[in-house]
Amino acid sequence: MKKKMILCTLFLCLCMISINSISAANVTVNPGSSIQNAVNKANPGDTIIINDNNKQPYTYKESITLNKKLNIISNGSVTIKAKTTNSAIFTIYSKAAGSSIKNFKLSDTNYSIMVSGASYCTISGNTITSASLVGIQFYGDITKSQVLNNKISGTTTKWGNGISFEYGKSTYNTIKGNTISNYLNGILFNDCSAYNTVSNNKVRCYALKGAGIYFTDNAKYNKIIYNTVTGAEDGIAIQKMGSGMASHFTITGNTVKYNKNGFWIRLTSSTISYNTANYNKVSGIDVTGSYNKIVHNTATHNGVCGIALGRYSSCDHNTVQYNILSYNKAGINSASNYTTISSNTVQHNTSNGIISTANHVTIKNNSVNYSANRILVQGSSNKVS
């Protein structure tokens, strides 16, 4: 019996030694050394710590490729510039899924971070400047990645994206707390994106060009919440460019100001609520689609409409309720059939309170005051009370 116990204990000790020998390690890179060499020598799961120069800022000039899961972290004020502007500073391939890049200053390249088919990655706390085409670019099918608390700025407002997901399906990703400026578009998702969350980002566009946050065809079940967008052609845009209509979005708590259009949205079966759309040149909230709930929003001081509803079909069934619409040219301008417009506060609009040019519309219990024309209705089978 004793012999068996000794053998078991010896076996457990050998197991512990084996586990410890393959556990993740910390690898340090100091000024003058190569980050890529450290990446090549590291084991999957290791953490590579890039040091500054004894608490003084230091700049490495490298283009780094990851083909294994690694955590790469800046220690102090560390800047990395690419070898050439045509190469990304970090390129993360699919075998490096689960990697993280944290707390660097990245500058002077076309693409700062390129993620190609690698899911479960975390890009956080970086300051990206002078990335002329894209700050952080995801290519291919990407799921459950996080882009958190980065500051990203480009070189021109004529082209480029701050953060983009393109050429694949993007699902369950989180884009949160980023500050983006000086690109044509701030945050862009390609078609077929689903279950992504875009929250608490600040996007500054210029000259009423581009889109702050942009989704395209067949996108479903995405959340756009508590973001701020200024200076864009369309602050938050969801476009129908092909055959598939976006659907089942939650768009809540966003602030869109000083854009051409605050919201330019083409979608169905979605909720647009508790947003603020003020001082936009044309419309605060412009929606075309069906079975949408547009509730508890504030749209004031917009050049044409507080809320504009386009005609999507013969039976749209949208709900516009509990919104505050003031100091626009028109509070609500709707061409949406079978829509209910109720319990809104529509006051001090310079031309019209509520305009409806659709059929089978119910307009009831609205407070409409201090407009040149309070309620103007055209169409058939409408109910106004």
Automatic annotation (TrEMBL):
Superkingdom field: Archaea
InterPro entries: Beta_helix, Para_beta_helix_rpt-2, PbH1, Pectin_lyas_fold, Pectin_lyase_fold/virulence
Domain Right handed beta helix: 92-238, 246-383
SMART domains (alphabetical): PbH1 (SM00710)
NCBIfam families attached to this UniProt entry: para_beta_helix
Identification of the protein by name: Parallel beta-helix repeat
Organism classification: Archaea, Methanobacteriati, Methanobacteriota, Methanomada group, Methanobacteria
